[in-house]
Amino acid sequence: MSFSKEQKQGILTESYKLPCCRRSFLVGILLSKGEIRDGRIVIRTDGEESAAALLPFLSEAFGKTAAVTTPAGGGRGRELSFSSPSAERLLLGNSEEILYYPSLRCQGCRGAFFAGIFFAAGRVSDPKKQFCLEFSFGNRTKMMNSFFAETGLSPKYTERRGEKILYFKDSASIEDFFALAGMNRTAFLFMNFKIENEFRNNANRVTNCETNNIRKAVTAGAGQIAKIEELERRGLLSRLPEELDRTARLRLAYRDLSLYQLSQKFVPPITKSGLSHRLSKIVKTADELLAERK
Prior knowledge:
Order of helices and strands: HHEEHEEHHHEEHEEHHHHH
Shape: rod-shaped
Low-confidence stretches: none
Strand content: 5-15%
Distance between the termini: 76 Å
């Protein structure tokens, strides 16, 4: 079962205690995906289980027993069809109805309404793979986009194989939607994966930074040793100032030590930055001495 379907199955187990909440859930479905065909209301679901779960909602809200059929194109989906003048008026109403419908009922109705929208028209990716929540509303896309804007959400728009899509790619917007829908478990899943990703990315950045620093230090150390060896080979090492000569000979004697470890070999020990400064001066002086011999 896909991650998206798991979340929808979770909605079906939600116990909406009040009839107004159950109706709001159903109205969210109707306004998202309901159609009128030959005087009947048609709702398409993703399977027989979802269709069966909606039957009592329809019976309670509209006093109708819906027929469950397989769509003409076949597949696992099922269609619920029934006759209802009130449901037809709802689908034929203007966009203002969708903007204000949930606020006219109890506090739980708004969440149920959003859950119905997701149940009917939403798809969400597994946050382990990517953050993506998208909706397909057909000819209601513009109306639903306005509704999202009224609730503080700002989906992006695209078309895919002729299908109009509203979508969210950022975790914050996805979390906000599922929180509005009362789907807190789903919202927390995205929060947790976002935190994990940020932690992992930060750890990778630190590791990469440390690796780059080590690489730079190794490269710099190899260059310093090469200069010192060249001075020694040409008999120029003793021409360095006393403190630089002593530093150069310690560097050759302890090639594998870090700067800090090498700095502690001095008597008395010197600072790491002081040692780094001396080694830089050795390289500069070596270039000058070698240039004189050319």
